[in-house]
Amino acid sequence: MKAIFFDKSGISNLKVGNYNDPIIGDHDVLIRVIKASVNPVDYYTVENLRVNPLPHIPGTEFTGYVIKVGSHVKDLREGDKVALYTRLFDGKCDLCLSGKEMLCRNGGRIGVDENGGFAEYASVHENNVFKVEDLDWDILASLPVASLTAYHALKEAKVKPNDLIVIFGASGNTGMFTVQLAKKMGAKVVAITRKAWVREFGADYVVNYDEALEKVKEISSGKMANVVVNSLGEKFWNLSLELAGTGGKIVTFGTLTGSEIRLNMSSIYNKHISIIGTTRGSRKEFMELINIAKELKVKVYKEFSLDEGVEAIKLALNNNRDGRILIKV
After folding, report:
1. Residue 199, class by beta-carbon neighbours within 10 Å (0-12 exposed, 13-18 middle, 19+ buried)?
2. Beta strand 225-230 pairing with 205-207
3. Residues 6+ apart with CB under 8 A from 30
4. Rounded-to-integer distance, Cα 301 and Cα 322, Å
5. DSSP assignment of 92-153, as one string?
6. What average pLDDT does the segment 109-132 reach?
7. Dihedral over Cα of 268, 272, 273, 278: its sign
8. Would you list the domain boundaries of the chain?
């Protein structure tokens, strides 16, 4: 099959070529990949993450059709259109049994700890495969990482109607879904971005980074935000603390601008601020997300062919892109 792969770390070692067809086990499903999305994790996978196997196919977010099932697979059939939950989990550890498969003690990530979806075909365990019907391919290619990460973060923050929520990077991969999902939860959304189109995705206010503090003060009459979603990391940490109101929550799941911060403890305890770290989401949340996915939309910056996939991955960290990067297989 044709795939994007590398045999040693470094973006310069990434190439498109022939790769052995996947082997499917008794409980596996062979997927004909239709679309995949490109995320920063895919770039880092190529550049410096420890991966398995080598040569390695990246791609943590993808969708397609079932073309073959293992001998023990009962609920999926050839031709099924599917959404893919791309966290690996054993289903046996204490965290899995408590419904937190994304934190499995023996788990990992499809696209990192086993081959991913930047290929014509991918073999996926049946427990990671969910049959769908009339969902758009672009949405399906955005569910496993961008949408699920946003959905889980908002649920962990217990966002409720009339909450004022501030979203950094609101035009980014997760940001555009955080905006939409927060609105569906009844929140008032302040999107921090330079991209005006985010208003069309449900943002009540769209403001630049340097205007955010004064704007939130004005909107909240000085009470500030109930929830601040910072998926960008270090650069905006101090601003996140300023934007959070008394009893507010800061949710974080990304470090694109750095991961090391200096923390003034008094700024936390004087306002009773909670800091919540999150990653992806559970299978239950993934199923919930599938049920509302028809109401979501995707802003696409550019769609590449599989042959152009190396260029697509190189753009993953480009701040000038305006929407998602997709690979059409």
Report:
1. middle
2. unpaired
3. 22, 24, 66, 67, 68, 69, 121, 122, 123
4. 5
5. -SHHHHTT-GGG-TT-EEBTTTB--SSBSEEEEEGGGEEEESS--HHHHTTIIIIIHHHHHH
6. 98
7. positive
8. 2-142+298-328, 146-277
Backbone angles phi, psi at 277, to 5 degrees: -95, 135
pLDDT of residue 234: 82
pLDDT tens by residue, 88-111: 999 999 999 999 999 999 999 999
Tell me the C-alpha distance between 22 and 321, whole Å: 33
Tell me the C-alpha distance between 233 and 248, whole Å: 18
Tokens of 239: 């601003």
* Fold (topology level) of 2-142+298-328: Quinone Oxidoreductase; Chain A, domain 1 (3.90.180)
Return the closest-CA partner of residue 146 out of 251, 37, 47, 227. Answer: 37
- Residue 86: CA atoms inside 13 Å, Cβ hemisphere, count? 37
Which CATH number describes the domain made up of 146-277?
Answer: 3.40.50.720
Tokens 């555009």 belong to 176
Cβ atoms 82, 137 nearer than 8 A: no
pLDDT tens-place string over residues 41-94: 999 999 999 999 999 999 999 999 999 999 999 999 999 999 999 999 999 999
Per-residue pLDDT tens over the stretch 286-323: 999 999 999 999 999 999 999 999 999 999 998 888 99
Beta bridge partners of 87: 109
Name the burial class of residue 283, with classes exposed (0-12), middle (13-18) and buried (19+) by CB atoms within 10 angstroms of its CB. buried
Quote the DSSP letter at residue 9.
S
Which residue in the block uniquely carries the two structure tokens 């410096």? 48
Residue pair 316/61 in contact (Cβ under 8 Å)? The answer is no
Beta strands in the chain (DSSP E): 2-5, 15-18, 28-38, 62-69, 81-84, 87-88, 108-109, 121-125, 129-132, 164-168, 188-192, 205-207, 225-230, 244-252, 274-277, 300-305, 324-328
Predicted pLDDT of residue 255: 77
